[in-house]
Design brief:
The chain is of the alpha+beta class and 244 residues long. The chain contains eleven helices and five strands. Strand 1 and strand 2 form a beta hairpin.
Length: 244
């Protein structure tokens, strides 16, 4: 997550971590099963590191009985803001689950759509927010919540990146999204899509497992996900590179 000692260490590193060594170590971990909670935490951590403007993130499930529950988050602030929306029965998180699959708040202190929630969220430091639907299987609905401490933190690039992580969070929870949505998300992050293809071929993984592999390499090496993807693609395209 942001603001950690790892981020400072990156800035002072004399050279980038040895990506090949990190990838080899992660490859040895591939057969170790992850829990759903581990996978969701991995996806959320990568979203915070990769999606422009995002400071904290969470995943909400809206059960058939109407009860909303946070099943994963990156910080206590995300939990607090989620619960605030549940208790007030108001906010982008719930509206993305009940009414519209994508909602964006650019300036929380000036927001009028949620007259009770918005001022309270702004008081706790939230400047911008995105809520989007992960899945709807008629038993429950899942949503991804992205929060920024800055106003006007998100743009259209944020939207395409958010869908990428929403897709993989849904897959981690055993749900599937339409193939076209995944294709669009990957096109929105072309270099990540290219790196996914390389990892799928090299380690004989499906798309979801390949994404989890990239995220683990990012986390283990303390390297941003897009930088991991770029280095994998650059190494594959280097002159004289032998393709398996």
């Amino acid at each position: 997550m942001r603001g950690t000692g790892g981020e400072v260490a990156r800035g002072h590193a004399e050279r980038p971590p040895d990506l090949a060594t990190i990838m080899a170590e992660v490859a040895r971990q591939l057969d170790q099963p992850d829990t759903v909670e581990d996978q969701l935490s991995t996806v959320l951590d990568a979203a915070v590191e990769t999606v422009p403007g995002v400071d904290v993130a969470s995943i909400t499930v809206l059960h058939r009985d109407g009860r909303a529950e946070t099943v994963a988050s990156t910080s206590p602030l995300a939990d607090e803001i989620d619960v605030m929306q549940y208790e007030l029965d108001e906010g982008p998180c719930l509206d993305a689950l009940r009414r519209r699959p994508f909602l964006r708040v650019d300036d929380m202190p000036a927001e009028k759509r949620w007259p009770v929630y918005a001022p309270k969220a702004a008081e706790r430091g939230v400047g911008s927010q995105i809520g989007l639907e992960l899945y709807n299987d008629q038993r429950s609905i899942g949503g991804l919540n992205l929060y920024s401490l800055q106003r006007n933190a998100f743009d259209e690039d944020t939207r395409s990146a958010a869908w990428l992580f929403a897709t993989h969070a849904a897959l981690a929870m055993g749900r599937t999204r339409q193939a076209e949505e995944l294709k669009t998300a990957l096109e929105g992050r072309k270099v990540i899509g290219q790196a996914l293809g390389i990892v799928m071929e090299r380690f004989e993984l499906d798309e979801h497992r390949a994404f989890q592999f990239l995220v683990r390499v990012s986390r283990n090496g303390n390297i941003k996900l897009r930088d991991v993807a770029r280095r994998i693609v650059d190494e594959r395209n280097a002159p004289g590179q032998v393709r398996s």
